[in-house]
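Quick question about two entries, pasted in order.
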Amino acid sequence: MVNILLERYMIDAPWLYTELKGYFGGSDRVLVVPFSFRDSRVKNAADWDAHYGRVHGKFYPGIVDSWKSYGIDGEQIEFLNYFADTKESARKKLARADILYFIGGLPDRMYERLAEFDLLAPLADFRGVVIGYSAGAAIQLSEYHLSPDDDYPAFTYGNGIGYIGDFYLQVHYTGSEVQRESVERVLRERRKPVYAMREHGAIVVENGIVRTIGAVERFDPNEIL
């Protein structure tokens, strides 16, 4: 299994493309999972379509076009639609996928919606390539932490899908005091390494082997920050 954890959504960025091109094939089918949206922004099917729909979605071109560099076109890409899909149709889409793509947003809401669709167990059994940025990276862990920010006023832990249980992840790392305090808390409370990704950073976990790309720092529980 391959898990790809990204800081940003630009999966076809030149610095990243050369590192990832070997994981994707032109015949692969991608399932995009946009379940991390904010309730205040996507309230109904019309809002969902305005964000992710094929015709009107403002994020649709950026998501789909980024796969063209890997030889994957729009006809090979499906989206899970929170307002239109059923539990059954969602499972069928998952069964067809070679690649799962979790986008950014709110990881706790993503987890809740996946649970609502009874997808946590089948997702845990998936053995293809899983890629995600920001919240879509954090959700791949067994447990993630969130540093205080505009969306989350207090430090918190959250449940993930469970592909990765050996480390924690600090996304959008700038080295700020609040982030460093959060990293230190995780090291102290969970006694596992923390990888902190800056803007041009990525992590690939292939069959349990961790490879960092670009601007990624590793913090060990035995280190003093």
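Here is the second entry:
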Amino acid sequence: MNKIAFITGATSGIGQATALKAAEAGFDLIITGRRKERLEQLAKEIHEKNADVLPLNFDVRQAEQVRQAIDNLEGKWRNIDVLVNNAGLAVGVSPIQDGILDDWERMIDTNIKGLLYTTRAIAPLMIARHTGHIVNIASIAGKEVYPGGNVYCATKHAVDALSKAMRTDMLKHNIKVTNIAPGMVETEFSIVRYKGDTEAAANVYKGMTPLTNEDIADTILFAITRPAHVCLNDIVIMPTAQANSRDVLRQ
């Protein structure tokens, strides 16, 4: 029987690439996202790779939606082997004194609360089977801070800390926890951050070669396919042209 991976934020970017690569690697998928049409299109693509798939259309920011979706899983779909907490975003680049409260709420509700709601619902299913692997998609922004990053950096620092805490809490239940902290990845991330300003988003990657969705998906797949006795606790992955959150070589 194929292992089952549950991926949040699967309708674009890293989540979408991870779902497709996991399907190719022999996983069956539970994919989640707010954009129903994209979710259904991804489910179709996964089916074409001869993997079974269950699309769940809900918002990770809504605790009751998360609980109901997972509580209502039936049959084999309750045997979740891998949870990829991928849903997340950055909104705005304002300094703290000019911060927009709605931007802060969106980041906190998605990046921290959404991860917690999903983990809280799925971890007991893993504990009952004494096996599982939780992968949290953090960021270099969870290791460092940079101008305009304030609240986004704070949310990803929270993910970094939660990953360490989960690893400790899950140890006696034989459940792995992996924190993955990418540097610059060219996805919809910057378009969302700059609220649709495609020129500003493009400038983020100008003159350098960023990571791709597939690069991070490959890293996730490597982590979740290690032998049972191996757990990659923390992975920082950067473009060759990026040394840290601020130093980037542009040609």
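Reply: The beta strands are 4-7, 28-33, 53-57, 82-85, 132-137, 175-182, 234-237. The longest helix spans residues 101-129. Hope that helps.
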